[in-house]
Amino acid sequence: MRKPNSSALARWAGLVVTSVLICLSTNALAQQPTEPSATKPNIVIFVADDMGWGDSATYGNELIQTPNMDRLASEGVKFTQCYSACGVCSPSRSAILTGRTPYRNGVWRHLSGVHDAHLRASEITYPELLKEIGYETCHVGKWHLNSRQQFNNPDFPQPGDHGFDYWMITHNNASPSHENPDNFVRNGEPVGQLTGYSAQLVASEATRWLKEIHDPAKPFAMSVWVHEPHSPIATDSRFEALYDGHKNSKYMGNITQMDNALGMVMDALDAQGVSDNTLLFFTSDNGPVPGFGGVTGGLRGHKRSDHEGGIRVPGLARWPGHIPAGTTSDVPVVGTDVFATILDIVDIPLPKDRTIDGVSMLPAFAGQPVQRSVPLFWRTHVSSGDNRVAMRIGDWKIVGNDTLTEFQLYEIQKDWKEENDLATKLPEKTDEMKNILLQVWNDITTEGPNQWWESERQKPSRGATLSY
């Protein structure tokens, strides 16, 4: 491996410095509310599971009905270049809570089997920090931030140890499927079999917490992480019937089932009179699984890939009075940014004792650029060999293989389908990007628990590709 080129890092630093004044000015403007709020804003983060960038009417699908995503987009901003922090589930979710790229926070792989990796107690999550200033916190739905033998095991951190007052969760997928799941745990106690479909059960629990348990005198932060459309899929007949006769009706109905749950949460916010003082952010944890019906909207790759189809996902945000309604933003943002955004809007400083990779999305809410000291970076432990790592700076994206020895280069804004590899045509630009990528990776491995991934050599288990 070649030693990173210091001049490349200097040029990257120079780009950051030149944008500081613009971004600081933009950030200041973006933080000015149109109307003063009497209380701190509430936070709701809604995460779909394995939903592709092209799996909704909101993002151009001509068949799948997603009226609540459409409504959310009409009342806020739609990001056309929103990314998950990884091409698989557990890592991308860990980044949402911590603001740190997955290898840095330790959740470097999906946690479906038996592994040492988990979201460590030493990590700082935004619910922990919000609780310190009087917020109540709730997490409902999927968790997947510890491995199977660690789930609901008091010897390992659980949601309550990461800042959630109340939680009703599953380890990974709803079991045996989305219909009548039997593997939820509420505040450490198994719930038993429930009747209904997972997304609606999760949304109902969120609604119940908001209406019956939450103290209305306090601000709240709530995570709603549904299981749809992750396999094994089960779809309510009322949603599948919308696509009667289509060979993909079960999957398409499953997306609408997920969208219905989003609508239930939005309606609950309205019913409690808190919608106007709530930041609601909707996204997915990664791209779709090939062969199950999901689509990427023309993007290359899929779940487990660091091409766009594996990591570019839906991103919708609504915060009345702060986010212009019915707008579109092509500013690249990533799930890792959720942490810094929440801290920004409640005036909590970022932790100084660790690297925070994400940045505040407040400027991007208004379509303005954000300032990054760490480039957008992805490393996915399970993917085809030639796209296990990627980095984006501005319009340039470099994609590399597992051993960091072969690289592709794309001008992603123009070539969003990644059809034209420019690595051979632009060797100097490729070297510049490669050297920055190697330095970022070196920084991450210095800070993260590298013994966890070095012991496995980043190779997935045989037959594991459909288990997460």
Give a nutshell description of this structure.
The chain has helices at residues 6-30, 67-75, 89-98, 102-105, 126-131, 198-213, 237-240, 249-271, 308-311, 337-345, 362-365, 427-447, 450-454; strands at residues 42-48, 77-83, 136-142, 166-170, 185-186, 189-190, 220-225, 278-284, 312-318, 327-329, 333-334, 376-379, 389-393, 396-400, 407-411.
Q: What is the architecture of the largest domain at the second tier of CATH? A: 3-Layer(aba) Sandwich
For the biggest sheet, the summary is: 11 strands, mixed
Which percent bin holds the helix content? 25-40%
DSSP strand (E) fraction? 15-25%
Mean pLDDT score: 90
The residue ranges in which pLDDT falls below 50 over 5 or more consecutive positions are 1-38, 458-468
CATH topology of the largest domain: Alkaline Phosphatase, subunit A
CATH class of the largest domain: Alpha Beta
Distance between termini? Answer: 32 Å
Round the Cα radius of gyration to an integer and report it.
Answer: 21 Å
Structure description:
The protein is of the alpha/beta class and 468 residues long. The chain is 30% helix and 16% strand. The protein folds into two domains: 41-365, Alkaline Phosphatase, subunit A, CATH 3.40.720.10; 376-453, Arylsulfatase, C-terminal domain, CATH 3.30.1120. It is built from 13 helices and 15 strands. The strands form two sheets. Strands 1, 2, 3, 4, 5, 6, 7, 8, 9, 10 and 11 form an eleven-stranded mixed β-sheet that branches. The chain has a four-stranded antiparallel β-sheet with strand order 12-13-14-15, with helices on one face. A hairpin with a 2-residue loop joins strand 13 and strand 14. Helix 1 (6-30) packs across helix 12 (427-447) and helix 6 (198-213) runs parallel beside helix 8. The chain is globular and about 60 Å long. InterPro entries: Alkaline_phosphatase_core_sf (IPR017850), Sulfatase (IPR050738), Sulfatase_CS (IPR024607), Sulfatase_N (IPR000917). Belongs to the sulfatase family.
